[in-house]
Amino acid sequence: MSSDSSKKRKPKVIRTDGAAPDGKRSKADAEQDVKYYSEETEVDLRDPGKDYELYKETCEELQRLMAEIQDLKSKGSKDSVRRDLLEYCASEVLAHNKTLKWEN
pTM here? Predict the structure, then answer.
């Protein structure tokens, strides 16, 4: 095998489907792809009872995690297991905060 054959360029493909030759899309094409999000429609489809239960469970879990974080910090030891547990709890708190933001 020669090194010349591995360096050959592929031939350019010319599009004939009516698209712009430089690969850019026109504004009209971009507008057709836009999907609209309607929060009101989503709210109408969701069950308020399930939303309340999710909110309640999330708040309870946040309370438990915050108490656990406070307990771990008050012990004052800096071992790696405790530090890893603190990081885990903190990431869980952030995830629950995202859940509450999404829900509201």
Answer: 0.52
Count CB-CB contacts under 10 A for residue 93.
Answer: 16
**Which distant-in-sequence residues (6+ apart) come within 8 Å of 15 by Cβ?**
21
**Phi/psi at 86 (nearest 5 deg)?**
-65, -45
Return the C-alpha torsion angle 19, 24, 27, 32, nearest 10: 60
Rg (CA), the chain: 27
Task: List, for residues 26-48, the tens digit of each pLDDT value.
Answer: 665 555 566 777 778 877 888 88
- Are 66 and 96 a contacting pair, CB within 8 Å? no
